[in-house]
Amino acid sequence: MTALNRYPELGVQDRAALDALLDSQWAGVLSCVVDGEPLAVPMLYARDRDRVLLHGSTGAGALRQVAAGAPAVLTVFAIDALVVAPTTFESSVNYRSATVRGRLTPVDDHPAALDLFSDVVLPGRTEEVRPPNRKELAATLVLSLPISDGGWLLKIADDWPATPETAGADPGVWSGLVPGRWVADPPVPAPWASDLPVPASVRGLLDRLGPGREPG
């Protein structure tokens, strides 16, 4: 639970590397145990310094369980490249994965937390739209998962494929890496917004993640 048992050499203790992974993704899987049965729910999240914010409906069973104190774990995973080796057995992926464990606590300041959440996913959007109303705030549960020492594990696979000699393969077979990343394609306006200009928040997202942009 607190150390890597398989391929421990891939374990990374660098907190900055953990933050970089969490900041590069939008979605993870929140897992807990409910009445003796495993429960895993894909969720959006946002890192805020030494905590991870998650939100959802107050009627969501998984959130009610973890809000009541059930221990939980958030898993985040990013594939960085396909590793094409001289054999299929040696082929793999370069990836980064992290788990953050702990007990989640409800966040009292809903408006500020939701604004922060939105600005992590789409910076500047909160300035372009109205704030949540009372009904929306009452229907939303915001939880905080601490990022504490001993409460997270980070694993990074980042290497070349096995050599033909190591794999016992034909040296004339191509091998290498096929890097990949998430790319934002041109925005598609809703039918009722086709005559409206693309807002600054979306343009900024394209500047960071659009085709041809360098990751970072």
Automatic annotation (TrEMBL):
Domain of life: Bacteria
Matching Gene3D superfamilies: Electron Transport, Fmn-binding Protein, Chain A (2.30.110.10)
Matching SUPFAM superfamilies: FMN-binding split barrel
InterPro entries hit by this protein: Pyridox_Oxase-rel, Split_barrel_FMN-bd
Matching Pfam families: Pyridox_ox_2 (PF12900)
Official protein name in the record: Pyridoxamine 5'-phosphate oxidase family protein
Coiled coil: none
Organism: Nocardioides panacihumi
